[in-house]
Amino acid sequence: MTRQGTHMTIELNRRAGLAALASLAAAPVAAAAATQGKGSPLPPISIYHLEGRRSERVVWLMEELGFPYKLEFKRGDLMGSMALIKAFSPIVPMAPTVKYGDQVLVESGAIMELILNRHAPGKLQPDLGSADYPHYLMWMHYAEGSLAAKLFSDYRAWMQQPPKERSRLVDSEAVVEFAEEFLKAHEWFGGAAFSAADIMMLFPLRVATELNIVDAVQFPKVAAWKARVEARPAYQRMLAKARPDGMIGMLRALPQHAPSGPRSPGPTR
Ligand SMILES: N[C@@H](CCC(=O)N[C@@H](CS)C(=O)NCC(=O)O)C(=O)O
After folding, report:
1. Which residue lies with its CA nearest to atom 13 of ligand 1?
2. Ordered structural domains, the chain, with CATH
3. pLDDT value at position 9?
4. Residue percentage of the chain with pLDDT more than 90
């Protein structure tokens, strides 16, 4: 790996990928491979990345699957990494941006669903017909649609005008509480087994407590789940490759919360 400031192109898991491609090449057509549960051959994938941000989800997924990918970012330089993204995809520069074959994709959840459904059938998702599947799919989408959206809007509102007491307008507790309640009855967001839903949920739940948007002590099940997912070898490999110097450029954490009053009745958007 080259050092800071230089444009990093990291070719990862290449050998594993070549072996997988070689074995898949024996299948007559991609569709036949998919029906045999092997998945279609993976096109070349480049992940445009910002350290510590949502693009880690795709890197982590690829590490869980042992799939090859290139990682594009400037180590220790978020602005430089964003400039790479803008040069590659100026219309909607965001992380992750993924080059999938010759297609340009954004939205971490959609990218993950595509990779799993097309190239890794049966992995990191519950069976479509199982009781776990509806929950799995709900958390896959809740992570961005309800949780991250509420957290970041509360964060901005709080930064703009710090509230003096818990308020219906700045109340991310409710959206995190929903996750806490679920984890009282389930070990993982996909139910019985670790899945891509856990990968989706880690970023917003990390942001929630690291930026002090909610009090970590109020959510012990979430804390225990975080420790479980962060201990996974694939997560650790992701950290080594995609966040080699730890967290950089972190947003300022919110000041200590206003004294707790009664919980307000949930999200109001
Ligand atoms: N819903 C998108 C959100 C992507 C997103 O907003 N990514 C952030 C980084 S975590 C970003 O690129 N922000 C643009 C910026 O910081 O300028 C996803 O899940 O991929």
Report:
1. 94
2. 7-119 (3.40.30.10), 132-242 (1.20.1050.10)
3. 55
4. 73
